[in-house]
Predict the 3D structure of the following.
Amino acid sequence: MYKLSKRSRERLNGIKPILIDIVEEAIKESPYDFGIPSFGGLRTAEEQHYLFNKKVSKCDGYDKESYHQSGNAFDIYAYIDGKATWKHEFYKPISDHIKKIALEKFDIELQWGGDWKSFVDLPHFQI
């Protein structure tokens, strides 16, 4: 059984409360531990633009806003052997679990960036 760290919980400040509830519930029985990275919750236009310039987002924060800017999205990272990893093999099992919890316990159908065709974003979830 896992739980969010204080830092990960703080990084969710400002997103929709239902998403926070989903994350808090999902981590308990997740197949792998996970956390919330910097910029993984609510973002300002400036923060979004910074990520756009780093080529890690398709949204520039101004002309094209991210779901993060409205509190309708969160990102995760897999936490394996005491450190964050971005290895793909951990994200599918975690995402399947988070989506299942969202649907079964909260009647919310989350979209996962790993299911997208044009731009795969494994850490990303949105409503």
